[in-house]
Write a structure and sequence with these properties.
CATH architecture: 3-Layer(aba) Sandwich
Distance between the termini: 14 Å
Number of helices: 13
Shape: globular
Number of domains: 1
Radius of gyration: 21 Å
Structural class: alpha/beta
Bound molecules: 1,4-dihydronicotinamide adenine dinucleotide
Strand content: 15-25%
CATH topology: Rossmann fold
């Protein structure tokens, strides 16, 4: 990254292109990290891992996992993510870049190690760098690896082939309402059925292959502690989302990850008395979920119902409950396949019956009243550091000073 002229002071405003955010507010991201740390501190410690690696650590589920493990279990953490800092007055860094910086700042204040690797987690070089760091500077062994990557593409490290994932249905076209966050409108979205190649490519990107390569590399390097655990976040969801989610290309990838987990579980049990876990997680507002077709309407209806029932969770609430009560607690909920199911609140019969009733009535005119689209939108803006009380969004930010901060 080369920055030639001194950067100006500017007020950073949100920029949305459809459901993609093109601007992030550094100070707001700091507020977001602090708020999540505050949640964990207020909601109790657990006796969990002391050395953790989080792949996809810079946002949403991965960041929440890192914050819970660090501030809930006093873990030193290594975070791997793919993020960008300030490159020009118009490109003021991604939210994940700032989250990494401010997480590290807070973790170090608390006396914890927090190492950030920025680059391609799918590459062999990244695995080698992380192994080397664990051996030389991280105490030699790790207790957990959280796999929380969400990516549109993956370069196969062996062949160099670039695979692109897609979110499509399988067999039949699906049509339903979705939300355009920029315009605050709902529109009919068409999800095309995937070709065989698209299904296979999505499995290549979002399935379990890279996860297994990580575990193999760490195992061969001898850095897995006795009792080591690894966890990948999956989604199954209700019938309503099945045609475009668990029954579609992404579902195939998650099924592949689950098969991989079963195999790795056996191996880890034998070698280090460890385990591999699939955590079927709830639908939450993230950079990745906002671009899943149709999901924003489902999520907004779901939030309406779960808020009314006192069950609504953001990523930090969901992941802290998962680690504290399930993975390192005594309240594990398993399904018949042996997957952990913190998503059971989302799938409760009463919740789903009410969600379905809302979705059946939604129109472009009534969706604001019927759903919690306001909550979905606010959470989305907050992912990028906007809409935090206590942050002055009119204030001009010193980009030059911020550009000196390193993750
Ligand atoms: P996100 O988009 O907020 O985060 C993705 C993370 O992956 C970021 O830290 C990003 O920097 C990192 N990343 C992407 N490509 C990378 C690469 N090549 N190298 C290094 N880092 C890379 O995603 P979100 O929603 O938190 O998803 C995480 C996992 O949770 C995914 O596997 C997703 O399927 C799963 N999940 C998400 C749900 C949701 O509602 N968002 C529900 C259930 C599961």
């Amino acid at each position: 990254m080369t920055i030639v002229a001194a950067l100006p002071k500017i007020a950073i405003k949100p920029v949305l292109k459809g459901n993609i955010a093109r601007a992030a507010h550094p100070i707001g991201c700091e507020a977001s990290v602090e708020e999540q740390i505050g949640f964990v501190k207020a909601n109790g410690h657990y006796n969990g891992p002391k050395k953790a690696v989080i792949l996809g650590a810079s946002s949403s589920y991965g960041l929440a996992s890192r914050i819970s493990l660090a501030f809930g279990s006093n873990a030193d953490t290594i975070g791997v993510s793919f993020e960008r800092g300030i490159t020009s007055p118009e490109q003021t860094g991604t939210a994940g870049w700032w989250n990494n910086i401010f997480f590290k700042k807070e973790a170090e204040k608390a006396g914890l190690l927090a190492k950030n690797f920025i680059g391609d987690a799918f590459s062999t070089e990244m695995k080698e760098q992380v192994v080397q760091y664990i051996k030389e500077e991280f105490g030699g062994k790790i207790d957990i690896l959280v796999y929380s990557l969400a990516s549109p593409k993956r370069i196969d490290p062996q062949t160099g082939t670039v695979y692109t994932s897609c979110i499509k249905s399988i067999g039949e076209e699906v049509r339903d309402f979705s939300i355009n966050l920029e315009k605050q409108e709902i529109f009919e979205q068409v999800v095309e059925p995937a070709t065989e190649k698209e299904i296979a490519d999505t499995v290549k990107v979002m399935g379990g292959e890279d996860w297994e390569l990580w575990i193999q590399a760490l195992m061969e390097a001898g850095v897995l502690a006795e009792g080591f655990k690894t966890v990948l976040y999956s989604y199954l969801g209700p019938e309503i989302t099945r045609p475009f989610y668990s029954g579609g290309t992404l579902g195939q990838a998650k099924a592949h990850a689950a098969q991989t987990s079963d195999r790795m579980n056996q191996m880890l049990k034998e070698k280090v008395n460890g385990e591999s876990v699939i955590c079927v997680s709830k639908a939450v507002t993230t950079k990745a979920s906002a671009v899943i077709p149709i999901l924003p309407v489902y999520a907004s209806a779901l939030y309406k119902v779960m808020i009314e029932k006192g069950l609504h969770e953001t990523p930090i609430m969901h992941k802290h409950r998962f680690f504290k009560e399930m993975l390192y607690g005594d309240k594990r909920e398993y399904d018949e396949n042996g997957y952990l199911r913190p998503d059971s609140w989302e799938l409760r019969e009463d919740v789903q019956a009410e969600v379905k009733a809302i979705i059946d009535q939604v129109t472009p005119d009534n969706f604001r009243e019927l759903t919690a689209v306001d909550v979905f939108t606010k959470e989305f803006m907050q992912l990028n550091g906007f809409l935090f009380d206590g942050v002055n969004y009119e204030e001009e930010i010193d980009l030059e000073a911020l550009s000196q901060l390193r993750p």
